[in-house]
Write a structure and sequence with these properties.
Layout (H helix, E strand, L loop, with lengths): L5 E5 L5 H10 L3 E5 L3 H9 L3 E2 L3 H5 L4 E4 L4 H8 L5 H4 L5 E4 L5 H14 L2 E4 L2 E2 L2 H6 L2 E6 L2 H11 L3 E8 L3 H29 L4 H9 L6 H11 L9 H17 L5 H15 L10 H8 L14
Parallel strand pairs: 1-2, 1-4, 2-3, 4-5, 5-6, 8-9
Antiparallel strand pairs: 7-8
Helix pairs in contact: 4-6, 9-12, 9-13, 9-14, 10-11, 12-13
């Protein structure tokens, strides 16, 4: 017999909604809350019970998940105007899935501890497609026993939950992974520009990259969109710039040298400044092509480039 759990999900955006929908599809009762009426409508269509306010969303829920865009939203929701932590019952578990700073996360941790709430930092690696298929990876830190309680529900939208320690380790891990993704996007842009200068066919070079020693899951996932010159965002250049700001602040605070992060932040500044900020983070291709004097690729496959 399957055990069902009553959970709350706050923040039903591009990642939050499909994650919450996976929980509901698995048979758990999910209360949802978002400031957008459109996202609430979509949540209702996905089997999630929409709630008019935070208090009713978290009432009676042992597990409360949060998915929001940045530090300001996290602090506003949990500590300031939203006062989510105060609305949660002592003994419940707050599971925060976003990419935020160590400092903001630590403030929420202190408030949760004072309230008797277990706090799991659980940023996820993946995109909306992975969220829909339940193949995200969760980097988790906080009380191990709280993860044990939450793991059956988290398993509905993740393929793995990596417990990394009792404190802010998951935040460091997420920033480190996103640094690698940003640098990989820059690397792909430079490699493809070099290949074009060498008169290698665009599609042929992308196939070679995907099948080479550097053919990571990210490279393979981006191969077809790049062939199509489709820069529809799964994670935007502006969002990557925000994460690079977090990475640089974290690294500088801890005395870590990150020249590649600084270089990529400048590249994303250029993308934003030239009108590509809402395109996918792989739009680094535009940046390198422009600096290299390469024209946009013409034809059906290149119409969006």
């Amino acid at each position: 017999m399957t055990t069902t759990t009553k959970v709350a999900w706050v923040g039903l955006g591009k990642l939050g909604l499909p994650m919450a929908a996976r929980i509901a599809k698995a048979g758990h009762r999910v209360h949802g809350f978002d400031l957008s009426s459109e996202r609430m409508r979509l949540a209702s269509e996905s089997g999630i019970t929409p709630c008019e306010d935070l208090a009713s969303a978290v009432a009676g829920c042992k597990l409360v998940f949060v998915s929001i865009p940045d530090d300001r939203a996290l602090l506003g929701l949990c500590l300031d105007a939203g006062k989510l932590v105060e609305k949660m019952a002592p003994g419940s578990v707050l599971i925060e899935t976003s990419t935020v700073s160590i400092e903001a996360s630590a403030r929420v941790a202190a408030a949760a501890k004072a309230r008797g709430i277990a706090y799991l930092r659980s940023p996820v690696s993946g995109n909306p497609v992975a969220a829909e298929s339940g193949t995200l990876s969760a980097m988790v830190s906080g009380p191990r026993e709280a993860l044990d309680d939450a793991a059956p529900v988290m398993a509905t939208f993740t393929k793995a939950q990596y417990w990394l320690g009792d404190d802010e380790q998951a935040r460091y891990a997420k920033l480190a992974i996103n640094l690698m993704i940003a640098v990989s996007a820059g690397m792909m842009g430079e490699a493809l520009a070099m290949a074009r200068k060498g008169n290698i066919q665009w599609e042929a070079m992308l196939d070679l990259m995907a099948d080479s020693a550097v053919g990571s899951p990210m490279v393979k996932y981006k191969t077809q969109p790049l062939k199509d010159r489709d820069f529809t965002s799964t994670f935007s250049a502006a969002q990557m710039a925000k994460d690079l700001d977090l990475i640089l602040a974290c690294a500088h605070g801890d005395g870590v040298s990150v020249p590649l992060a600084a270089q990529m932040r400048e590249a994303y500044s250029s993308l934003i400044g030239t009108g590509h900020g809402e395109e996918d983070y792989i739009a680094t291709i535009h940046h390198t092509e422009r600096l290299s004097g390469l024209p946009a690729i013409e034809g059906a496959a290149g119409a969006r480039g």
